[in-house]
Structures are given as structure tokens and as C-alpha cells.
Design brief:
Elements lengths: L2 E11 L5 H10 L12 E9 L3 E10 L9 H5 L4 E7 L3 H17 L5 E7 L11 H10 L3 E4 L8 H14 L1
Parallel strand pairs: 1-3, 1-4, 4-5, 5-6
Antiparallel strand pairs: 2-3
Bound molecules: guanosine-5'-triphosphate (GTP).
Length: about 170
């Protein structure tokens, strides 16, 4: 059979962690060293075809700057999936990611597919957050976990395919 699923997907996380870059890598296969900071939020769509279903993602890429924090509920409300991004070279961004996870747990949808993403994995020499630390936090909070690089494309399609596979089942 062939099922069509339309799913709202939101990206959350500290400024500069690479939310826009991950989306542009997924949607356009592009990466910019000097990606501009998002104002408010940006909207993208992308379709992924699986064996049994076609998933059409409506993607809300939110702005990480603190002054936009209060807008976030508009974007995660009604979402089927959320990607919470931190930057492996910034412990501060990991702390912020944990705050987003708690906010989603408190106010979000209980069946939300939530993914913790450790981005900028290409910057291994500047790493501040060990892979195991992110992975353990994800496990304790029942989140999917990926280490990615929007720059090299490491794990980016895997991330979105995994979300699509989870959404196919709901
Ligand atoms: P806000 O819109 O401010 O919330 O930022 P953002 O989370 O959307 O980050 P953005 O995609 O704008 O990326 C910030 C900077 O990090 C840009 O200069 C990107 O080129 C860079 N960047 C993003 N992803 C990666 C990555 O995987 N590796 C490296 N080395 N740089 C990255």
C-alpha cells in the first residue's frame, strides 16, 4: 500500500548550532560557511519516499537567539517531530538543548518523535561534549540520538530517514 503522511517538524536549539545548515543540507544538499542567523523562523518543505509511505515534511527552522524563545511554542505546537540541536564544540549549547528537551516534555505532545542532534561532528579537535554524554542523556530521556555534520553531510540523511520511518508507523 502507499500511505501519504504530512508531518510538521520543528528544529530547536541554541543560536549557531547549525539548525538552518542541517535543513539546507537535507533539502538542498548545500552548506554555507557563513550561514546567516535566522530571524523568527524559516519554513521549508521536503518529501521523503519510503517503501510503504511518502512523508511530506513541513519544516519549521526556529531562531536560536534568546529573544525569539517565546515564539517557540507556536512552532512546536502540533508538531509530529522535533529535532533539538547542540554543537559538540559548545557545552553551553548542550545545556540549552537539555532545557529545550524539558520544555518539550512539559508542554509538548506526549507522542512527539524527539531527536537529540549533536552537530558539527567534523570539529572533533574542538569537542567539548563527549559523544557518550549526549548519547546517555538521550537514552535516559528516550530520545533518538545522532551525531551529525551539516558541513560533511555525516548522518544528515540518516537523521531525516529515521524520523520518517517513525512517522510512517503513527
Ligand atoms: P540561528 O539561526 O542563529 O539559531 O543558528 P543555526 O542554529 O540555524 O545555525 P546555522 O545553521 O546558521 O549555522 C551557524 C554557523 O555554524 C554557520 O557559520 C555554519 O556554517 C556553521 N555550521 C553549521 N553546521 C556546521 C557543521 O556541521 N560543521 C561546521 N564546521 N560548521 C557548521
Amino acid at each position: 500500500g502507499n500511505k501519504n503522511v504530512q508531518a510538521k517538524l520543528v528544529l530547536l536549539g541554541d543560536m549557531g548550532t547549525g539548525k538552518t545548515s542541517l535543513v539546507l543540507r537535507f533539502v538542498k544538499g548545500q552548506f554555507y560557511e557563513f550561514q546567516e542567523s535566522t530571524i523568527g523562523a524559516a519554513f521549508f518543505t521536503q518529501v521523503l519516499s519510503l517503501n510503504e509511505a511518502t512523508i511530506k515534511f513541513d519544516i519549521w527552522d526556529t531562531a536560536g537567539q534568546e529573544r525569539y524563545h517565546s515564539l517557540a511554542p507556536m512552532y512546536y505546537r502540533g508538531a509530529a517531530a522535533a529535532i533539538v540541536v547542540y554543537d559538540i564544540t559548545s557545552m553551553e549549547s548542550f545545556v540549552k538543548a537539555k532545557k529545550w528537551v524539558r520544555e518539550l516534555q512539559r508542554q509538548g505532545n506526549p507522542v512527539l518523535v524527539t531527536v537529540l542532534v549533536a552537530n558539527k561532528a567534523d570539529l572533533e579537535t574542538k569537542r567539548q561534549v563527549e559523544n557518550e554524554v549526549g548519547e546517555q542523556y538521550a537514552k535516559d530521556n528516550r530520545l533518538l540520538f545522532f551525531e551529525t555534520s551539516a558541513k560533511t553531510a555525516q548522518n544528515v540523511s540518516e537523521l531525516f530517514y529515521e524520523i520518517a520511518k517513525r512517522l510512517e508507523k503513527v
